[in-house]
């Protein structure tokens, strides 16, 4: 199975650092230095499973690249490369469809752990049990990893899908943010709990009738979230 990762970074020293470390970890790395080039290379390599996107680039920026990738591809895992000063960018990146972010400067171990975790989720894991979970108006198909609401397909990223699956397997149960982070992102994940909230916010926009007044994903104050009533 191809272990292809795309790296979009205009600074050659950082790009080189990423390429060396991911190659060492067993990945085939496709390099690009501009957003336009990255989109072209992704078209030529539809089997790329994880993309690392720098944000500040000449030409179209990393957010726009992320948006364009997500417009046609929900399966690929996307990690944004952010600078420490770009706190807000993390959130913006996640709202445009990224699954994760890594803050520069990062260690080789951190980088590889993040890519490994996403790679497993983006289709590298063992096939799931065949089945469907029906909770009107939602139907979750665990074979195709798809969600329908009232018979209409809701386009989800892999992370959003995993959160929905966790919710629908635990109706009415309060799930802590730590529990969600462990289950969806994996125990080896380095990131912050905030990533859970950002993904939930995005998921609500997709599945709630009114995201301002959610009825499916309920907040359990000071703890986490609960599916249903
Ligand atoms: Ca840059």
Could you explain how this protein is built, in words?
This protein is of the alpha/beta class. It has two domains: 4-124, Response regulator (Rossmann fold); 132-227, Orthogonal Bundle (Arc Repressor Mutant, subunit A). Helices cover 41% and strands 23% of the residues. It has eight helices and twelve strands. The protein has helices at 12-24, 35-44, 62-72, 87-95, 108-124, 158-169, 177-185, 194-207, and strands at 4-8, 28-32, 50-54, 77-83, 100-104, 132-135, 138-141, 146-149, 152-154, 174-176, 217-220, 224-227. A five-stranded parallel beta sheet has the order 2-1-3-4-5, sandwiched between helices. Helix 1 (12-24) links the parallel strand 1 (4-8) and strand 2. The relative contact order is 0.10. The model is unreliable at 125-129 (pLDDT under 50). The site of calcium ion has 5 residues, from loops.
Strand-helix topology:
Blueprint: E1 4-8, H1 12-24, E2 28-32, H2 35-44, E3 50-54, H3 62-72, E4 77-83, H4 87-95, E5 100-104, H5 108-124, E6 132-135, E7 138-141, E8 146-149, E9 152-154, H6 158-169, E10 174-176, H7 177-185, H8 194-207, E11 217-220, E12 224-227
Parallel strand pairs: 1-2, 1-3, 3-4, 4-5
Antiparallel strand pairs: 6-7, 7-8, 8-9, 10-12, 11-12
Helix pairs in contact: 2-3, 6-7
The protein binds calcium ion (CA).
Calcium ion is lined by residues 10-11, 54, 56-57.
